[in-house]
Amino acid sequence: MVFALARLALMGFVGLSVIYVLVSIYSRSVRRERLEERWEAEQIGGDREEFVRAGLAEYDGSVRRKLILGVYVVPVIVIGTLIYAINYW
Amino acid sequence: MRYVKWAFWSVLILVVGGFLHYTMPQQDIVRIVNTEVRRVDVGENKIFWAQTDVANTPTTVNRDVRFIETIRPNGKPIVYRNEDTGWGWPPYFKLDSSNLQAEASDRISSRDNPQWVVMRHYGWRNEFISIFPNAVDLRPIDGPDVTLIPWLNIVILVVFLVLILVARQMWLQFRERSIDPLVEDAGEAWDKVDAFAERKKGRLRRWFDSWKPK
Questions:
Q1: How many CA atoms lie within 13 A of B201 on its CB side?
Q2: pLDDT tens, position by position, A75-86
Q3: What's this model's pTM, rounded to 2 decimal places?
Q4: Which of A54, A75, A81, B117 falls 20 to 30 Å from A32 in CA-CA distance?
Q5: How many CB atoms lie within 10 A of CB B134?
Q6: Is the minimum CB–CB distance between B141 and chain A shorter than 8 Å?
Q7: Which residues of A touch B (CB under 8 A)?
Q8: Considering only CA atoms, which of B90, B121, B111, B123 is closest in space to residue B21?
Q9: Is the ipTM of this complex over 0.90?
Q10: Which one of B148, B176, B192 terminates a domain?
């Protein structure tokens, strides 16, 4: 049991890490695009790169970015619920 | 080319559909007539069987498998195996086969005085390769005429669809932001090379022309 469970945990961690990285890249890319569009639309002026960099720095510290950690949390909760529902309910 | 496309999509739908149909839970209304344990030597049909119970030695050649023999409301038999899926695939995390066997034995009923149960299971019954659906859990019901709404399957399919759409959106974003600019750059670079070659060729051509008799 320990071996099979460890294998599942390890493979799950690797798989979820790949997903975590991909989602992080995606989310950051969307944020960057939005910042660029906002700079364009609202005629903010000044250096565009500087505006985008400041916006992304703000994003890096945001709760929204930390929500991506849910990629790890949600499957663990789902599996725990499943184990309970299938075996003990 | 159109047929190739059709063939591709048909095969894809068949494979994905078959995979989902095998793996996702289904519910049958049945009457349990017997529970038993048989020794099984799994061979070519290996992928349609689970492994031995969780935490037992997984390397033995043959093993005992619990079976639940049932009759459907139309009188036809359907036999389930009752195996742990453990921590492997499919992800049911079923560890309580022994308990399920006890519950099933508790519900054995006769034709004259039937006790109907809903048997949740996954997998297929196929006589040609001796495979059986794996029972996951059961619950008693009053009669065989209840309508079962597969809520679980609806939820799973919706989540599956959402994940596909998210992945597609991620790919589109990646293409728009990362690949298209590269391709544009490459296109511009190629245009430059083209123009340069054109200029060189012009010069060479003029040099050739200078040798031609006027």
A1: 6
A2: 999 999 999 998
A3: 0.76
A4: A75
A5: 22
A6: no
A7: 1, 4-5, 7-8, 22-23, 25-26, 29-30, 32-33, 79, 82-83, 86-88
A8: B123
A9: no
A10: B148
pLDDT for the residue numbered A81: 93
pLDDT at A64 over 90: no
Q: Which residue, chain included where needed, has tokens 């490459």?
A: B186
* Residues B139 and B154 reside in one and the same domain: no
| Min distance A88 CA to chain B CA atoms (Å) | 8
Same domain, B57 and B81: yes
Query: Pick from B132, B148, B164: which residue ends a domain?
Result: B148
Q: Which of B14, B103, B86 is nearest to B52 (CA)?
A: B86
Total domains in chain B come to 2
Please check whether residues B136 and B169 belong to one and the same domain: no
Domain that holds residue B57: 2-148
In B84-190 the beta strands, taken as DSSP E runs, fall at: 116-122, 134-140
Q: How confident is the model at residue B119 (pLDDT cuts 50, 70, 90)?
A: very high
For chain B, percent of residues with pLDDT exceeding 70 = 99
Give residue-wise pLDDT tens across range B14-72.
999 999 999 999 999 999 999 999 998 887 788 888 877 777 777 777 788 999 999 99
- Nearest CB to B93; choose among A25, A33, A86: A86
What residues are paired with B118 via a beta bridge?
A: B29, B139
B89 in reach of chain A (CB within 8 A)? no
Q: Which amino acid is at A76?
A: V
The token pair that represents A61 in the structure block:
């510290």
User: Token pair for residue B76?
Assistant: 């036809």
Q: Is the peptide bond before B90 cis (omega within 30 degrees of 0)?
A: yes
List, as own/partner pairs, every contact residues A18-24 make where C-beta atoms lie below 8 angstroms and the sequence separation is at least 24, other chains included: A19/A71, A20/A68, A20/A69, A20/A71, A20/A72, A22/B170, A23/A68, A23/A71, A23/B170, A24/A65, A24/A68
Contact A86 B137 (CB under 8 A): yes
Beta-carbon separation of A87 and B55 below 8 A: no
Indicate if B143 and B163 belong to the same structural domain. Answer: no
